[in-house]
Description:
Layout lengths: L1 H7 L12 H14 L6 E5 L1 H5 L5 H10 L1 H25 L4 E5 L11 H21 L3 E5 L8 H6 L4 E3 L11 H8 L4 E6 L1 H6 L2 H16 L6 E5 L10 H16 L3
Parallel strand pairs: 1-2, 2-3, 3-4, 4-5, 5-6
Amino acid sequence: MDDFKAWLDLPDQEPGGEPDPSHVEYFLESEKKLGDGGIAMIEASDPLCHVAPLFDMGTYTIMGMTEPELFQKALEKVMPKIFYRTEAVARALPGRLWRICGAEYATPPFLRPQHFKNYVVRYETPMVESIQKQGGFARIHCHGRLKDILDLIVSTGCSGLDPIEPPPQGNVELSYVRRKYGRQIVLFGNIEITDIENLPTVEFEQKVAKALREGTEGDGRGFVLQAGAAPYGRMVSELTLRNYEKMVEMAEKFGR
């Protein structure tokens, strides 16, 4: 606690500077190489994604619950640089897809919805607005039990949400999210990496078929089938590869 308070008292440097031109050029070259084969994405971290890892997870959750004013002060400390960087990159690369990370640190059961509102929505909303002001599309990345915070996520004005984990990892079915929020945001995900790595392909097909069906039923802005994470190990097994191939095959055939 003393170290944390000492860090909070350190003087802050005024945000400044512009994106490195070589990094901008690298992004533009990546887009050219991708062509119509994909979308290059910009990834950003919200203030919570910077502050929460200063602690071990147990200390963080206790701090977040019992010291809200102190924790809010930490978020306010890092926000100016994050917001400045977001605005600068959005100006340099307008109209792009973004993914904002950090919200999952405040999902239940780690913290309560009120904490999510104070620690995530309060800061991600201006980030979303800054991106959209330059014609961009901000997608929020958030693992966890989302059902009680979906209204809060949508209130940021974001264009998309991933990975919408199915039960039992998450606590809400994709069909519910599509029905209630599909007209407001594009839905991404719903395939667990543990299923890709462990389920026999014949069983995995059922998971993919369910996600494709629920993610596209009724009206909505769109659905992108994807895994919620990358493979965990250093080596990709034959089963994992087969299941990835099956997921692509089924997505390409879907709706024909």
